Amino acid sequence: MMRYLGSRLLQSILLLWIVSLIGFFVLYLAPGGPLAQFALTPGMTQEQLARIAHQMGLDRPLPVQYWEWLSRLLIGDWGQSYRDSQPVLAIIGSHLFATLLLMGASTLLAMIIGTWIGVLGAIRRYSIFDYLATIGAMIGLSIPTFWFGLIAIYLFSVKLPWFPAGNMYTVGDASFLDYAHHLVLPCLVLTLVTVAIWSRYMRSAMLDVQGQDFIRTARAKGLPEHVVLRKHAMRNAILPMITVAGLQIPTILSGALVAETVFTWPGMGRLFLDSLNYRDYPVVMGVLMFSAVFVLLGNLLADVLYAVADPRIRLT
Amino acid sequence: MSEATLPAQPIEDIAPAARFRAVRRFVRHRLAMVGVVMILVLVLGSFLGPHLYPFDDLRIDMRNRFQVPFMGPHWLGADPLGRDLMARLMTAGQVSLAVGFAAMILSTLVGTAIGAVAGFYGRALGGALMRFVDAMLCFPNIFLLLTLAAFIQPGVWTITAIIAFTSWMEVARVVEGQFKTLRERDFAIAAMMIGSSDARIIFAEILPNAVAPIVVAATLNVARAILLESYVSFLGYGIQPPLPSWGNMLNSAQQYLTSAPWLAIFPGLAITAAVTGFNFIGDGLRDALDPRLDA
Amino acid sequence: MTQPILSVRGLNVRFRGRGGGEVHVVRDVDFELAAGQTLALVGESGSGKSVTSLALMRLLPGEPRCRIGGRVLLEGRDLLYLTEAGMRGVRGNEIAMIFQEPMTSLNPVHRVGEQIAESVRFHKGLGRRDALDRAVELLELVGIPDPLRRAQAFPHEMSGGMRQRVMIAIALACDPKVLIADEPTTALDVTIQAQVLELLRDLQARTGMAMLFITHNLGVVAEIADRVMVMYAGRIVEQAAVDPLFAKPLMPYTRGLLGAVPRLDIFAKEKPPLTSIPGAVPDPAHPPKGCAFNPRCTHRQGGLCDQRTPPLEAAQPGHDVRCLRWREAMEAA
């Protein structure tokens, strides 16, 4: 297993390097490149700009600049926000909790519901339930999440004032229940897509496992059906789902961005859009790079978990 | 290397019957047929509808501001300027569908090219290209899309290009996989033995055999492109008003959500219908083109 | 013969396709099995032998996809009329089964000991510890060295032969009265095959269980079986004790099968040439008219074999055959 994890770690480092190249390339696409902040300042002359460019080392060869940028990235110096001069990494850090809370709650919910739908669809294959679940999942994947969010606000916040339409907590309250109350709608919206994906994968994983010989063995032992299902079928079908969960991280992050925007949820996605609106490029680039690294580490973590959970990998 | 000269021999020779069976499976696929009908209605409605429909999408009608759907001259109601919502949906549909199609074509071409080269040459070049694909997939697509859209002057073509740039990777993966296996097959090896050029083997021998999964991925890519366009436009970085798209109609509807919810409901339904339609078709194509069913 | 433990009368299995067409894969199968006896069920793949065994265990998909008719009497109780819960009490407890593929028949994520123990826990109500002790005991019984350590192993850490021994341990966990072995040695190396057969024979002698041994390999049949039942296209075509069947096969199909077995018999004066049966088992959805075997039969008589369906007749006491021309075969032999 150590060999497997080692090679996986090496792959991730290689990937991280390519990710940084793409990030550097995108940075230079910005109008005015890293100089944008100063180019927008009124009364800035060409000479002043050139001087600043020289100070920032922008007149040096690209590889040198890339190397500097990368080494600063690696030591955690991700630049400063144009808006309030805070270090980018600190700003991201202060918004991370909200996003993780939203993603975590929704992923947990999606796994529970999605597993249930997927398993039921697989054991009652071609039933009405299975058919509806299939169509429902495809529609769920097709609904734009922000629109679903707007409709949810209209129904459950405007028409029926059950849930707050925005923010993470009420100023002055901030109890656990208050958080939970604010979490309901954005979580629901984010869960729609994840449930759809999760239930599809779960269904096909279950169908795969159900045709396996060892399920027949378990039945031939005379075990009750629920034991066959839980101990033998689901235990095996869940394994590949760990990898699926890892692969879903970018989708969930994208969904979180949209949900945070619609529900003014103070997370990373909200921060990203605000920064875009202010042309606060260091923060924009910071969040972009951070999300890519987050995805990469998430996938690595999923692979490690898989290796721990699957005995076939555990002991080799 | 024009597309018209593709001899496509392995498929052409053995497969008229298989192809017929695939078509029949597709036509019998109920969801796919629902999808085809949905897309036909949307496309015809968007492109022919404006010629038949009595209202112009730009006509301002202050007497009928915020007209409720089905309660006045405007079928689906009117917006804050009294413009007809139905007419605006049609014009917006032209933009959204066109962007979706164009982005699909672009991303499929890019994805196929990169996947073909990676799969055919393999080794260092293929490995490097596929690692690039992996790295691109690490960026959550909306983050990348928004960053690029904010940096680049938004317009119909740039938005299309940006969407294509962030969604070619799946196609590339599919094509790479196909090429990797197909290049080991007899007909490809035979072509190599008689000294055909690489380009000829790629385009004339292997590509025609990899068409089925590409078509499926491309169909699903239309759905995804329409969805992505609606996201960026809704967030204000996509198609810019006054040119309407389903996504930016929702952006402006957001502030009237309490007073005029229909302004948000109908564009969202249009997006959902279009995306669902293409997903249904893609699903049907996947089932119909599955070679395992041709045993 | 002694009182049979398992008695099967008029077993029929029909599958219904998703299109609605019905396929009759097992037709009017009768047999009896006594304690300590081994009955071999022989046929090519697709002849219906595995379906027969799964039907006895009621492990086929339920209605309406699959219909089972007839009677399956285990010590007088008709298994086809048991409730699902009642049937679960039979499976793995009174009738146990081992399968062809030891590589895939064990659950990859559970330890071997646990997979044996769960059966005992469920049927005998043993606690976790006691059940695991019993599992180790069983591993020892089936000849696995260092059983205490092996009980903690996962299936992928074992060889094919070891895994088949584990399968046998699972099957024997509750001292079943009947063991159904569905091609238990087919996937194994020849030397391992011999060991597993030896083990099964030995265990049978110790426990006195009855065994239904399904195989397409007549060489294995000679080693282990008391009686043989040859199946073709869902029907029993010949049934006899081992010696008379090998000495004097009456059905051309049986003769064909025997011709397809390489003879390792060193005492044979001259080795007959190895022959094979031309053609393939008929599609059960479209059985040929008349005798099911007639399109492949070298002794077919036109106008007879392709017109009339032969009945199963007793050629001699204890030797049944389904062939319209068995009398001629008898005289020739």
Describe the structure.
The complex is a heterotrimer of chains A (316), B (295) and C (333). Chain A is mainly alpha-helical and 316 residues long. Chain A folds into two domains: 44 residues, no CATH class; 218 residues, MetI-like fold (Orthogonal Bundle). In chain A, helix 8 runs antiparallel to helix 11 and helix 11 crosses helix 12. The longest helix of chain A is centred in the middle third of the chain and has 36 residues. The mean pLDDT of chain A is 85. With 295 residues, chain B is an all-alpha fold. Chain B has a single domain, classed as MetI-like (MetI-like fold). Chain B has 14 helices and no strands. Chain B is elongated, with a radius of gyration of 22 Å. The N terminus of chain B is likely disordered. Chain C is α/β, with parallel strands linked by helices and 333 residues long. Chain C is 32% helix and 23% strand. The longest helix of chain C has 18 residues. At the A-B interface, helix 1, helix 6, helix 7, helix 11 and helix 12 of A face helix 6, helix 7, helix 12, helix 13 and helix 14 of B.
Largest sheet of chain B: none
C-alpha-based Rg of chain A, rounded: 24 Å
Q: Could you say how many structural domains of chain A there are in total?
A: 2
CATH topology-level name of the largest domain in chain A? MetI-like fold
Largest interface comes to: A-B, 47 and 45 residues
The tally of beta strands of chain B, per DSSP, is: 0
SS-based structural class of chain A? mainly alpha
Shape of chain B: elongated
Query: How many discrete structural domains of chain B?
Result: 1
Kindly state the number of beta strands of chain A: 0
Q: How far is the N terminus from the C terminus of chain A?
A: 5 Å
Write the CATH homologous superfamily of the largest domain in chain A: MetI-like
Low-confidence stretches of chain B: 1-14
Membrane topology (chain C): Peripheral membrane protein
Subcellular location (chain C): Cell inner membrane
Organism (chain C): Arboricoccus pini
Keywords (chain C): ATP-binding, Cell membrane, Membrane, Nucleotide-binding, Transport
